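Box 3.1 A note on notation
Throughout this textbook, protein chains are presented in two layers. The first layer is the amino acid sequence; the second is a token string describing backbone geometry. Keep the layers aligned when reading.
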Amino acid sequence: MAPRTIERERKKSLIKDFSQMLDQLQNSDDPKAVGLLITYLNSLLRVKDVTPPLSEIISILKWQKPTLFHHARLTLPSTSHLTMVFQIDLNPHVALKRLEQYVEK
């Protein structure tokens, strides 16, 4: 399999995982949900084989689960690498369109 094909398949897998996680987590300040979200986002930062679509993921998270997003952001220490990720501001409709394009390719 060609390297580009492997990269596309890996991105599709990451997007599907995000979609499933988003469906499972409630839009609440539940510490367990916040912890699961932070763990998931930290795991995305550790992905080495492709560049995960973090900007799009954060934008959609902020749009679809604003309470969860807010409480996760407040939970992070200022030294966390995720602090910068939570400052990303992207139109959620553009983000959704980009993720759909990744999946369709």
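The longest helix spans residues 3-24. The chain is about 70% helix and 0% strand.
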